[in-house]
Amino acid sequence: MISNYPWLKKVLQAYNLDEASIKSFGAGHIHETFIIEQLGERCILQRFNNRVFQIPERISHNHAIVMVQMDHEKLPFTLPLPLPNVEGELFTVIDTAFFRLSPFVSGSCINQVRNPHQAYLAAKAFARFIRAGIHIAPDQFQEVIPGFNDLELRYNQLLDSIQKTQKHIDGELKQLIDFYLDQKLLVNEYLNWKKMLPLRLTHNDTKINNLIFADDLTKVNAVIDLDTLMAGYVYYDFGDLVRTVACTEEESSTAWDRIDIDETKYEALLKGFKETGEDIFTKDELDSLPFGGPMMTCIMGLRFLTDYLLGNIYYTVHYSEQNFNRAKNQMYLLKALKKKIR
Predict the structure, then answer these.
(1) What is the pLDDT of residues 272-323, one digit of tens each?
(2) pTM here?
(3) For residue 25, which of 195, 177, 224 has the smallest C-alpha distance?
(4) 20 to 30 A Cα–Cα from 207, which one of 101, 226, 230, 270?
């Protein structure tokens, strides 16, 4: 066991653990994840990818705030935040590699919402997360990825990539670029909401597989993947749910004629968020929610297209045109959102 994982002994010592079993776990794309088991007790061990998250101390800074200041008693689910090592640190560094240990939460992760009720449960869970941290001063949090959900920045990054690209811009590529450049009104609306809305603690990556459901899928046991916790706007988390839950095709699909919005799932998401936040989110925050879907879809389209123009340097691709197709996918989704929701 140790020979397969030469760092394991030092990791166990850092958490004052004796010999334990270890096995690979999950299918995450960012961090290497393992289950550590000792005397029937299980924990999650992650070998942290500090090439993607280049300032890990910001993540541990934000986690420490949430540990102390979050109103955990108001959460009907678990936040499996990292466990401190024997030195009280949330990361353990071994030969330049970063590791962290967190509680194991049993249940089921799903990659696709099967019915509106599951969408409703997901919306309530992420809205409850925001609600439980709404009293925390947002300026305490550090930006884990600067400008992560800044639509104006992403728009300007596309403009910059057009100047830098080695690709010949014509035909369908020009049409796709023109579509995204025509989203200036969305950018202006984003800037208007920015002036009106309060910052909150937000999750910022509200995909359905960042929830652990009970095995019978009737409730949420945990909100996970907490690396992107930072200050944001309520509609960020609602919008990313819309983009990933209420769409009829996943973001790498090239079935263009099947890309649409499932309006029953959308309404379930909206109901879940509004019911949870109606007595604590401001009226402007509640009014901003329908903007979230188009905004987050536009941001992802801009990011995919920018990466394609720069030579696929950020997102993992399985063929050279995949980021182009992802951007095209988000274009169809954005059109559907504008037609049916707004």
Answers:
(1) 999 999 999 999 999 999 999 999 999 999 999 999 999 999 888 999 999 9
(2) 0.92
(3) 224
(4) 101
Interatomic CA distance for residues 103 and 157, integer angstroms: 38
Reading the block at residue 333, the tokens are: 């989704």
pLDDT at 30: 66
Coil vs helix vs strand at 237: helix
In the prediction, which pLDDT does 27 show? Answer: 54
Whether the CB-CB separation of 265 and 246 falls below 8 Å is answered with yes
pLDDT for res 342: 67
Report the C-alpha gap between 312 and 107 in whole angstroms: 35
| C-alpha torsion 164→169→173→174, nearest 10 | 110
Calpha distance 219→131 (Å, rounded): 18
Identity at 78, one-letter amino acid code: T
- Amino acid identity for residue 9 in this structure: K
Tokens of 321: 């045109």
Can you read off the two tokens belonging to residue 188? 């202006």
Contacts of 316 (CB under 8 A, 6+ apart): 29
| C-alpha to C-alpha distance for 135 and 337, rounded to whole angstroms | 32
User: Residue 180: in which H helix or E strand, if any?
Assistant: helix 171-181
What is the three-class DSSP state of 122?
Answer: helix
Helix (H, G, I), strand (E, B) or coil at 306: helix
* Structure letter (DSSP) for residue 10: H
Positions in the chain whose pLDDT score sits under 50: none
Structure confidence at residue 284 (pLDDT): 98
In the block, residue with structure tokens 């140790």: 2
The pLDDT tens digits of the residues spanning 115-153 come to: 999 999 999 999 999 999 999 999 999 999 999 999 999
Read off φ and ψ for residue 244, nearest 5 degrees: -105, -20
